[in-house]
Amino acid sequence: MPEGCALAFLTLAASTIVHYQMSDYYQPEYFSGFRYDDPTFGVCWPVEPVVISDQDRGYCDLDLAAL
Q1: Residue 65 pLDDT
Q2: Distance CA 8, CA 17 (A)
Q3: How many angstroms separate the CA atoms of 53 and 38, rounded?
């Protein structure tokens, strides 16, 4: 995935482990995101996610007025 492009993972198999590579060392001050269920995007997930990281759960809805 190119830098700045959103991505998400949903697995339907139990005990799945996902690894991904970033283009640079992780620097929290430059990292951001949005919730998987943000109504702005209208993603229809095939199932409701069961495990969501605390970090991902803590994101707010995208505020288009602020862009």
Answers
A1: 76
A2: 14
A3: 15
